[in-house]
Write a structure and sequence with these properties.
By secondary structure, the protein is α+β, with helices and mostly antiparallel strands. It has a domain of 60 residues: SH3 type barrels, CATH 2.30.30.100. The protein has 3 helices and 5 strands; from the N terminus they run H-H-H-E-E-E-E-E. A 5-stranded antiparallel sheet has the order 4-3-2-1-5. The radius of gyration is 38 Å and the shape is rod-shaped. The C terminus is likely disordered.
Length: 134
């Protein structure tokens, strides 16, 4: 038996392992910081969820209030209320009427509303569209 420096007798050499089919491989495990970095880049690439509220309704009310646009508010009962939107909040609008008392209307009771200058229809079509022309 021949002894070499740095080797012990009976130790497997690489060539010997390849012949027998056994190779010692080092198990590579990522560190916790590497995993967090990978998760962070995945989260950053994800598109953010759309906002719950677009504020389009608020913009519309403010625009009509500033211009003092005469509006027609159609209620669920079919009644029409004509006036100018004076004030609004999350649940209701205040309609100022010239010769009648002002009204505070719950938004849940409103079917739809439109500018008084637009064509009136029966509520089945969108304002400004004639039936049959699509």
């Amino acid at each position: 038996m021949r002894f070499e420096r740095g080797r012990m007798p009976g130790s497997n050499t690489r060539a010997g392992n390849e012949e027998t089919g056994m190779i010692n491989r080092k198990l590579i495990r990522p560190t916790l910081s590497e995993i967090q970095d990978q998760m962070g880049t995945r989260m950053q690439r994800r598109k953010p969820a759309p906002p719950e509220q677009t504020n389009a309704e608020n913009f519309y009310y403010i625009k009509q209030m500033q211009a003092r646009t005469p509006m027609v508010v159609v209620l669920d009962t079919g009644d029409e209320i004509r006036g100018v939107i004076e004030w609004y909040d999350k649940n209701c609008i205040k309609v100022h009427r010239a010769n009648e008392p002002n009204l505070l209307i719950m938004k849940s009771a409103v079917r739809f509303m439109y500018k008084q200058s637009e064509n009136k229809n029966n509520g089945d079509e969108l304002p400004g569209r004639e039936p049959g022309n699509e």
